[in-house]
Design a protein that fits this description.
The complex is a heterodimer of chains A (113) and B (115). Chain A contains no helices and eleven strands. With 113 residues, chain A is mostly beta strands. In chain A, strands 2, 4, 5, 6, 9, 10 and 11 form a seven-stranded mixed beta sheet that branches. Chain B is globular, with a radius of gyration of 14 Å. Classes of the chains: A mainly beta (113), B mainly beta (115).
Protein backbone atom coordinates (compact mmCIF):
# COMPACT_ATOMS: atom_id res chain seq x y z
CA UNK A 1 0.00 0.00 0.00
CA UNK A 2 2.01 2.98 -1.33
CA UNK A 3 -0.53 5.69 -0.47
CA UNK A 4 -0.14 8.73 -2.73
CA UNK A 5 2.76 8.72 -5.19
CA UNK A 6 4.02 11.54 -7.37
CA UNK A 7 6.43 11.66 -10.29
CA UNK A 8 8.84 13.19 -10.92
CA UNK A 9 10.40 14.30 -7.62
CA UNK A 10 12.37 17.10 -9.24
CA UNK A 11 12.11 18.89 -12.58
CA UNK A 12 13.76 21.86 -14.24
CA UNK A 13 12.01 23.46 -17.20
CA UNK A 14 12.77 26.36 -19.46
CA UNK A 15 10.15 29.05 -19.91
CA UNK A 16 7.58 27.94 -22.48
CA UNK A 17 8.18 24.22 -22.11
CA UNK A 18 5.36 21.90 -21.14
CA UNK A 19 5.20 19.00 -18.75
CA UNK A 20 2.80 16.79 -16.85
CA UNK A 21 3.04 15.97 -13.17
CA UNK A 22 1.69 12.55 -12.33
CA UNK A 23 -0.16 11.51 -9.20
CA UNK A 24 -1.64 8.17 -8.23
CA UNK A 25 -3.31 6.80 -5.10
CA UNK A 26 -4.08 3.23 -4.15
CA UNK A 27 -6.54 3.91 -1.32
CA UNK A 28 -9.68 3.89 -3.49
CA UNK A 29 -10.39 7.53 -2.62
CA UNK A 30 -12.89 9.42 -4.75
CA UNK A 31 -11.49 12.94 -4.26
CA UNK A 32 -8.06 14.12 -5.34
CA UNK A 33 -6.33 17.51 -5.18
CA UNK A 34 -3.39 19.48 -6.50
CA UNK A 35 -1.79 22.14 -4.30
CA UNK A 36 1.22 24.36 -4.79
CA UNK A 37 3.47 25.48 -1.96
CA UNK A 38 5.32 28.78 -2.06
CA UNK A 39 7.41 30.36 0.70
CA UNK A 40 5.31 32.31 3.18
CA UNK A 41 2.04 31.28 1.55
CA UNK A 42 1.34 27.80 2.79
CA UNK A 43 -0.36 25.46 0.33
CA UNK A 44 -2.88 26.77 -2.16
CA UNK A 45 -5.40 24.69 -4.08
CA UNK A 46 -4.90 24.58 -7.84
CA UNK A 47 -7.52 22.05 -8.96
CA UNK A 48 -9.50 19.26 -7.43
CA UNK A 49 -11.53 16.29 -8.57
CA UNK A 50 -14.47 15.06 -6.53
CA UNK A 51 -14.80 11.88 -8.55
CA UNK A 52 -13.61 10.16 -11.68
CA UNK A 53 -14.48 12.29 -14.70
CA UNK A 54 -15.00 15.55 -12.82
CA UNK A 55 -12.59 18.40 -12.14
CA UNK A 56 -12.98 21.89 -10.74
CA UNK A 57 -10.83 24.97 -10.25
CA UNK A 58 -9.35 25.92 -6.93
CA UNK A 59 -7.79 29.20 -5.82
CA UNK A 60 -4.93 29.43 -8.35
CA UNK A 61 -5.85 27.51 -11.54
CA UNK A 62 -4.41 29.86 -14.16
CA UNK A 63 -1.71 28.26 -16.30
CA UNK A 64 -2.66 24.71 -15.37
CA UNK A 65 -4.86 21.93 -16.67
CA UNK A 66 -5.77 18.64 -15.04
CA UNK A 67 -7.00 15.22 -16.05
CA UNK A 68 -8.68 12.67 -13.85
CA UNK A 69 -7.72 9.66 -15.93
CA UNK A 70 -9.40 7.12 -13.69
CA UNK A 71 -10.11 6.73 -10.00
CA UNK A 72 -6.43 6.23 -9.18
CA UNK A 73 -4.73 8.93 -11.25
CA UNK A 74 -4.92 12.71 -11.34
CA UNK A 75 -2.41 14.57 -13.49
CA UNK A 76 -1.46 18.25 -13.60
CA UNK A 77 -0.25 19.78 -16.86
CA UNK A 78 1.68 22.97 -17.46
CA UNK A 79 1.19 23.83 -21.13
CA UNK A 80 3.67 26.72 -21.27
CA UNK A 81 5.72 26.97 -18.10
CA UNK A 82 6.49 30.37 -16.59
CA UNK A 83 8.98 31.31 -13.84
CA UNK A 84 5.98 32.15 -11.60
CA UNK A 85 5.16 28.43 -11.62
CA UNK A 86 8.39 27.58 -9.81
CA UNK A 87 7.04 25.88 -6.73
CA UNK A 88 6.61 22.62 -4.89
CA UNK A 89 3.54 20.73 -6.01
CA UNK A 90 1.64 18.36 -3.77
CA UNK A 91 -1.02 15.90 -4.73
CA UNK A 92 -3.51 14.69 -2.13
CA UNK A 93 -6.44 12.34 -1.88
CA UNK A 94 -9.33 12.48 0.52
CA UNK A 95 -10.51 9.73 2.78
CA UNK A 96 -14.16 9.22 1.92
CA UNK A 97 -16.73 10.06 4.53
CA UNK A 98 -17.60 13.20 6.42
CA UNK A 99 -14.09 14.27 7.41
CA UNK A 100 -11.58 16.36 5.53
CA UNK A 101 -8.57 14.21 6.28
CA UNK A 102 -6.34 14.28 3.22
CA UNK A 103 -3.35 12.12 2.44
CA UNK A 104 -0.46 13.87 0.74
CA UNK A 105 2.15 12.70 -1.71
CA UNK A 106 5.86 13.49 -1.28
CA UNK A 107 5.78 16.49 -3.63
CA UNK A 108 7.40 17.55 -6.90
CA UNK A 109 9.90 20.39 -6.81
CA UNK A 110 9.63 22.32 -10.08
CA UNK A 111 11.97 25.07 -11.21
CA UNK A 112 11.21 27.13 -14.30
CA UNK A 113 14.14 29.16 -15.63
CA UNK B 1 -13.35 36.18 3.78
CA UNK B 2 -12.82 32.81 5.41
CA UNK B 3 -9.16 32.37 6.26
CA UNK B 4 -6.53 30.70 8.40
CA UNK B 5 -3.90 32.79 10.19
CA UNK B 6 -0.64 31.72 11.70
CA UNK B 7 0.64 34.98 13.14
CA UNK B 8 4.18 33.79 13.88
CA UNK B 9 6.31 33.36 10.78
CA UNK B 10 9.39 32.22 12.68
CA UNK B 11 9.89 31.04 16.27
CA UNK B 12 13.10 30.09 18.04
CA UNK B 13 13.06 28.08 21.26
CA UNK B 14 15.73 26.38 23.32
CA UNK B 15 15.82 22.61 23.46
CA UNK B 16 13.78 21.45 26.43
CA UNK B 17 11.64 24.58 26.52
CA UNK B 18 7.91 24.54 25.97
CA UNK B 19 6.34 25.50 22.66
CA UNK B 20 3.07 27.00 21.54
CA UNK B 21 2.26 27.72 17.90
CA UNK B 22 -0.78 29.81 17.22
CA UNK B 23 -3.53 29.25 14.67
CA UNK B 24 -6.70 31.27 14.20
CA UNK B 25 -9.41 30.79 11.63
CA UNK B 26 -12.29 32.81 10.37
CA UNK B 27 -15.39 30.67 9.92
CA UNK B 28 -18.94 30.65 11.27
CA UNK B 29 -19.28 26.98 12.13
CA UNK B 30 -16.92 24.48 13.73
CA UNK B 31 -14.45 23.42 11.08
CA UNK B 32 -12.24 20.38 10.78
CA UNK B 33 -8.82 21.31 12.15
CA UNK B 34 -5.39 19.89 11.40
CA UNK B 35 -1.74 20.47 12.17
CA UNK B 36 0.90 19.25 9.72
CA UNK B 37 4.69 19.29 10.02
CA UNK B 38 7.13 19.55 7.15
CA UNK B 39 10.84 18.85 7.59
CA UNK B 40 13.20 20.47 5.09
CA UNK B 41 12.80 18.97 1.63
CA UNK B 42 10.11 16.60 2.83
CA UNK B 43 6.39 16.18 2.41
CA UNK B 44 3.64 16.87 4.93
CA UNK B 45 3.13 14.70 7.97
CA UNK B 46 -0.11 14.87 9.93
CA UNK B 47 0.52 15.65 13.61
CA UNK B 48 -3.04 15.72 14.86
CA UNK B 49 -6.62 16.53 13.95
CA UNK B 50 -9.84 17.72 15.56
CA UNK B 51 -13.30 16.98 14.25
CA UNK B 52 -15.49 17.02 17.36
CA UNK B 53 -15.60 15.93 21.01
CA UNK B 54 -12.85 16.60 23.52
CA UNK B 55 -11.30 19.93 22.66
CA UNK B 56 -7.81 18.86 23.73
CA UNK B 57 -6.37 16.43 21.21
CA UNK B 58 -3.19 14.43 21.39
CA UNK B 59 -1.01 13.79 18.40
CA UNK B 60 2.22 12.13 17.43
CA UNK B 61 5.68 13.12 18.65
CA UNK B 62 4.32 14.44 21.97
CA UNK B 63 2.28 17.29 20.44
CA UNK B 64 -1.16 18.36 21.54
CA UNK B 65 -3.58 21.06 20.42
CA UNK B 66 -6.57 22.72 21.99
CA UNK B 67 -9.64 23.91 20.12
CA UNK B 68 -11.14 27.05 21.61
CA UNK B 69 -14.39 27.93 19.91
CA UNK B 70 -14.71 31.31 21.62
CA UNK B 71 -11.33 32.38 20.26
CA UNK B 72 -11.56 30.57 16.90
CA UNK B 73 -8.18 29.11 17.70
CA UNK B 74 -6.43 25.76 17.48
CA UNK B 75 -3.00 26.24 19.03
CA UNK B 76 -0.34 23.56 18.94
CA UNK B 77 1.70 22.84 22.07
CA UNK B 78 4.57 20.69 23.22
CA UNK B 79 5.88 20.70 26.81
CA UNK B 80 9.52 20.03 25.95
CA UNK B 81 10.96 20.62 22.49
CA UNK B 82 13.60 18.35 20.98
CA UNK B 83 16.16 19.40 18.37
CA UNK B 84 14.43 17.09 15.89
CA UNK B 85 11.28 19.23 16.11
CA UNK B 86 12.93 21.94 14.00
CA UNK B 87 10.67 22.14 10.94
CA UNK B 88 7.84 24.14 9.45
CA UNK B 89 4.39 23.72 10.93
CA UNK B 90 1.14 24.30 9.08
CA UNK B 91 -2.32 24.70 10.47
CA UNK B 92 -5.06 23.63 8.07
CA UNK B 93 -8.82 23.95 8.17
CA UNK B 94 -11.44 21.95 6.32
CA UNK B 95 -14.99 23.09 5.81
CA UNK B 96 -14.31 26.65 4.71
CA UNK B 97 -15.32 25.66 1.20
CA UNK B 98 -17.77 22.85 1.71
CA UNK B 99 -18.27 22.04 -1.95
CA UNK B 100 -14.61 21.29 -2.48
CA UNK B 101 -13.86 19.44 0.74
CA UNK B 102 -10.41 20.95 0.35
CA UNK B 103 -8.12 22.24 3.07
CA UNK B 104 -7.22 25.87 3.59
CA UNK B 105 -3.72 26.27 4.96
CA UNK B 106 -2.10 28.93 7.06
CA UNK B 107 1.15 30.41 5.84
CA UNK B 108 3.22 28.30 8.21
CA UNK B 109 5.48 28.81 11.21
CA UNK B 110 9.13 27.88 10.95
CA UNK B 111 10.49 26.50 14.22
CA UNK B 112 14.16 26.75 15.04
CA UNK B 113 15.51 24.88 18.08
CA UNK B 114 18.61 26.16 19.84
CA UNK B 115 20.85 23.72 21.71
Amino acid sequence: NAGVTQTPKFQVLKTGQSMTLQCAQDMNHNSMYWYRQDPGMGLRLIYYSASEGTTDKGEVPNGYNVSRLNKREFSLRLESAAPSQTSVYFCASLQDGSSYEQYFGPGTRLTVT
Amino acid sequence: AQSVTQPDIHITVSEGASLELRCNYSYGATPYLFWYVQSPGQGLQLLLKYFSGDTLVQGIKGFEAEFKRSQSSFNLRKPSVHWSDAAEYFCAVGGLHTGRRALTFGSGTRLQVQP
